[in-house]
Amino acid sequence: MLRYLSGHRPGLQLYVARSAVDGQGLFTARRIPAGRKIGEFGGELISQRAARWRARRNHKIAIVELRDGHAIDASRAANWFRYINHSCSPNAYIRIYRRHIEFYARGEIRAGQEITCDYGESHHNGKLRCTCGAANCRGSI
User: Fold this and answer.
1) Where are the domains of the chain?
2) Among 13, 36, 126, 127, which residue has the fewest nearby CB atoms (within 10 Å)?
3) Residue 18 in 3-state DSSP?
């Protein structure tokens, strides 16, 4: 039985399940049209310095740095958007507005499909092997 998640756009049914990319991923049970806001990343507001310290000490992280010297760390929080995995050919993108980290559909996302985004620059500094499986995979994150 699927457990649908709250904290996202009304009408969407999102769930966490085993991912072919890495560990667990965030999936949609319903079609998401192109351009639709999927939801918002949430967690603990910390300094970028603290974020980088935490990233050096943990293999699995869910940290997004902001432009104002802060970061949002969902590694320990129960925010479901921390399960969005990286892909070199993503179906979603991140929009950062002030201290809000929002996810939007790049194109239509089919029901049952995993939601992915391109992490871009990350705390892994290209040292983590990418397992997205995309034809255009860069090989590292």
Assistant:
1) 14-117
2) 127
3) strand
